[in-house]
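Exercise 7b. Backbone tokens:
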């Protein structure tokens, strides 16, 4: 298939799998912070294939150009923006949750914070609203008691290559037989106070927060001191359970 891709490195294995058996016409990526979210991997792939890419938001003109170039499918994965819908060009989105649960930008940390024992990844039709389109493919996986954001995304990305091969190999059938999601709820990005810890928090709670945002900054507030915590876990200090200095490492 002739395809376009919109996204950054969060789900780069999807793009890497897609280009094995499909022709990539254009990459749409985002302006990222370059620290916690990157696009180096997908840009390097596009450059290696001599495929044009842009950091600018997709416009209706871009969609029209894709149609003129014979594009048959646009796949988005973690793309920040709503994409202009055009019924002439099929569009799908890869979402790291079991839709309709977990609509929104941060389903992975919320799955850990909510104590879910299962999650997954969904490929669905792109619509005018985020994460509401009919489902083409969905894979489930178990969440471990000590799941982190990093290990969560490792499970997502481990499933994406096979899903992308299935998507493009049998696209017409999957598109025609896509399943409506039903009722769901858009989850707002967690309030910053959800990842600020204090000495009053238990180690169990602190570790859940640190796991949910593993790789991104959390903070420990003790009086006027505010300490940034990245890639940290909380452990009980002997029999003690209040979160105190020295039990985060």
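Sequence design result:
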């Amino acid at each position: 298939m002739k395809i376009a891709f919109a996204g950054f490195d969060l789900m780069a294995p999807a793009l890497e799998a897609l280009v094995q058996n499909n022709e990539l016409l254009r990459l749409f990526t985002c302006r990222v912070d370059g620290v916690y979210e990157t696009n180096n991997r997908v840009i390097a792939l596009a450059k290696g294939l001599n495929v044009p890419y842009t950091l600018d938001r997709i416009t209706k003109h871009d969609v029209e150009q894709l149609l003129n170039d014979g594009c048959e499918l646009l796949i988005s994965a973690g793309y920040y923006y709503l994409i202009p819908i055009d019924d002439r060009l099929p569009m799908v989105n890869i979402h790291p949750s079991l839709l309709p649960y977990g609509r929104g930008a941060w389903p992975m940390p919320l799955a850990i914070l909510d104590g879910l024992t299962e999650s997954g990844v969904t490929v669905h039709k792109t619509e005018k609203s985020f994460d509401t389109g009919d489902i083409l493919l969905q894979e489930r996986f178990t969440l471990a008691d000590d799941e982190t954001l990093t290990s969560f995304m490792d499970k997502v990305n481990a499933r994406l290559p096979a899903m992308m091969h299935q998507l493009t190999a049998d696209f017409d059938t999957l598109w025609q037989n896509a399943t409506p999601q039903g009722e769901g709820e858009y989850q707002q990005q967690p309030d910053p106070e959800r990842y600020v810890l204090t000495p009053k928090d238990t180690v169990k709670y602190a570790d859940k927060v640190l796991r949910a945002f593993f790789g991104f900054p959390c903070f420990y507030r003790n009086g006027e001191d505010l300490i940034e915590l990245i890639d940290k876990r909380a452990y009980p200090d002997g029999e003690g359970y209040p979160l105190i200095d020295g039990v985060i490492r």
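Instructor comment: The beta strands are 2-7, 23-28, 53-54, 73-77, 91-95, 118-125, 135-142, 196-197, 218-222, 225-229. Residues 151 and 226 are 27 Å apart (CA to CA).
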